[in-house]
Amino acid sequence: MVTELARLEVTDGVGILRLDRPPMNALDAQLQTELVALSREADERDDVAAVVVFGGEKVFAAGADVKEMAAMSYQEMVRHATLLQGFTRAIAAIGKPTVSAITGFALGGGLEVALSTDLRFAAENAKVGQPEILLGIIPGAGGTQRLSRLVGPSRAKDLIYSGRFVTAAEAERIGLVDRVVPAEEVLREAVDWASQFVGGPALALRAAKSSIDRGLEVDLQTGLEIERLEFTGLFATDDQSTGMTSFVENGPGKATFEGR
Asked: Per its UniProt record, what SUPFAM superfamilies does this chain match (predicted)?
């Protein structure tokens, strides 16, 4: 698929999934469709160990394309809503470590993109929020579900009911973002974090992500069963044999993994 509004740039094992629809990276149907395709590509490529989602130096994403949605009928939105959730589901389904590098605004659908990654690093001047209520609607790309799971239902309700913008400092305090750094450093910090997984045990990382994400959706006993199955399955991999043999012979942290 040829993409025009997003791209996947791979350097030294780290994929940067770049939104590129200036000036505000409004998430229209084309950009959403391209993000689905690029997320699947990042998941499948062996030369991508981890993924950074980035909107540019000035803005992450200001939200869904309101002009596009405003004219939609109920019948049209029934069809479009599948894509609206589908593109954030595709990002969340990348079976590798992912992190959002947030600059400027991450609002509405933009924040929902960031919520779809494992971690979020934000510039000191970033503003995040779910302002959909101010349009007479609610978040529709995962915000009501992922935000409440991340920061708790009462904080999620405060943000969604009010539609207010949240500073990077407050977002870090409530656990909405994981690290706040100067704006000029946010992409480098995210790439540095992602780089640690290059050459790592790819199947074990995928199993860890699957266990955590799937376990959050079920009761504890079912989650433990998911963990047990993922754990035992890794004993069929070369990396498990390599890692344990290296530990016994050379001590921790010296294994060279092949991702198989």
From this structure: ClpP/crotonase (SSF52096)
Cis preceding-peptide flag for 23 (omega within 30 of 0): yes
- Could you report the per-residue pLDDT of 166-221, keeping only the tens digit for each? 999 999 999 999 999 999 999 999 999 999 999 999 999 999 999 999 999 999 99
Whether 41 and 8 have beta carbons less than 8 Å apart is answered as yes
| Cβ atoms of 193 and 16 closer than 8 Å | no
Q: What CATH number is attached to the domain comprising 207?
A: 1.10.12.10
Is residue 169 included in any domain, yes or no?
Answer: yes
45/138 same-domain check: yes
Cβ atoms of 120 and 114 closer than 8 Å: yes
> Are 107 and 62 contacting, i.e. CB atoms less than 8 angstroms apart?
yes
Annotated catalytic residues are: 112, 132
Q: How many structural domains is the chain composed of? A: 2
